[in-house]
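Translate structure to sequence.
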């Protein structure tokens, strides 16, 4: 049977690695290294998705009991599925709108994975049965500042929303190891290093007033 304590440790390290990749992505963006910044931000997205997958596994194991070893292994194989990890945030943030559905579908069909690969390598386009040697050459030099900014903003908003919820205790996270990382200090750092979107800022202001959080940055 899979060692549950080891999975909890992996989850904590994965969340910590999400923060590292996100911070590095912001530093590269400010240095105008947009392609490398975009690549790292997608990796941060995958690691955050992995942390959620592991947390779901740990939570289910504690509350509903352990499953047969074969099923548990199938579940945990998802942490090696790049597209599944990339789509996790879209599933969490799905609001029923056509825009939200479109983003989810595009990610599920590999749009983010394709851009991630194009941000790293020079080559030809892929097609269902292999490589299209007749296609134009794909290079990392076409990832724009705008696309990178949107990618980083999505990850930052997701992190702010999660940490704000855990700090104010209207969200919960199952493992103590990871919960200890979700502090007021981390929340203020996330807000100050990258400006939250208008929608997220409205939520921050609402929560600050509701819970009288004078320490929370405007």
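Result:
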């Amino acid at each position: 049977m899979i060692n549950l304590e080891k999975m909890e440790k992996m989850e904590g390290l994965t969340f910590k690695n999400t923060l590292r990749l996100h911070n590095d992505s912001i530093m590269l963006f400010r240095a105008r290294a947009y392609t490398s910044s975009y690549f790292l931000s997608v990796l941060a997205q995958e690691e955050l998705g992995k942390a959620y997958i592991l947390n779901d596994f740990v939570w289910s194991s504690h509350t509903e009991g352990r499953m047969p070893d074969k099923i548990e292994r199938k579940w945990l194989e998802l942490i090696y599925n790049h597209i599944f990890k990339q789509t996790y945030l879209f599933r969490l943030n799905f609001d029923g709108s056509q825009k939200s559905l479109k983003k989810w579908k595009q990610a599920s069909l590999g749009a983010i994975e394709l851009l991630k690969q194009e941000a790293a390598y020079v080559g030809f386009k892929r097609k269902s049965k292999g490589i299209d040697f007749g296609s134009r050459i794909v290079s990392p030099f076409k990832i724009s500042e705008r696309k990178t900014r949107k990618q980083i903003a999505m990850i930052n908003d997701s992190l702010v929303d999660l940490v704000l919820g855990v700090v104010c205790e209207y969200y919960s996270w199952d493992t103590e190891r990871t919960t200890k990382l979700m502090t007021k200090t981390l929340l203020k750092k996330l807000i100050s290093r990258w400006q939250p979107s208008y929608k997220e800022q409205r939520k921050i202001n609402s929560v600050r007033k509701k819970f009288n959080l004078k320490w929370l940055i405007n």
